[in-house]
Design brief:
Number of strands: 3
Oligomer: single chain
Mean pLDDT: 84
Largest sheet: 3 strands, antiparallel
Shape: globular
Order of helices and strands: EHHEEHH
Strand order of the largest sheet: 1-2-3
C-alpha cells in the first residue's frame, strides 16, 4: 500500500497568534501574522504545542484504499518547520517571505519547542 495523503487536524478553538511576527518586522519584511501564512502557522503552532507528540487522531494518513488512519509516531521539529515552508509555498507565499519565515522558525523556534 502507498500513502497518498496526510492531514493534520487542528481543533476549532485552538488559540494561536498567527505567525509570531513582531510588529516592527511587518514593515521591514512585509510578513504579517495573517493572510497567506495563517493556515501554515496554525498547523505549525499545533505541532509545536505538543512538541511533536500529537494527540490521537490529530495526524492521519490515507493509503491507497482511501481509509483514513491515525498516524503513529512523533514529529521532529525540523520536519514540522519543513511542513510550515511547504504549506506557505502551496498557499502562494512569495519565495523571499517564505525563506525569511522558515529561517525565523529554524533559528528561534527551539525556544518554543
Amino acid at each position: 500500500m502507498i500513502c497518498l495523503y496526510n492531514k493534520i487536524c487542528v481543533p476549532s478553538g485552538f488559540t494561536y497568534d498567527g505567525a509570531s511576527v513582531p510588529r516592527l518586522a511587518w514593515s521591514l519584511t512585509g510578513i504579517r501574522p495573517d493572510g497567506l501564512l495563517r493556515a501554515a502557522a496554525a498547523v505549525h503552532d499545533w505541532i509545536y504545542r505538543w512538541q511533536g507528540a500529537l494527540p490521537e487522531g490529530s495526524h492521519q494518513f490515507c493509503l491507497d484504499d482511501f481509509a483514513w488512519q491515525s498516524a503513529i509516531g512523533e514529529w521532529k521539529r525540523k520536519d514540522c518547520d519543513r511542513l510550515f515552508g511547504r504549506m506557505m509555498r502551496e498557499a502562494g507565499v512569495s519565495p523571499m517571505k517564505r525563506k525569511m519565515a522558515y529561517l525565523a522558525v529554524r533559528l528561534l523556534g527551539g525556544l518554543s519547542w
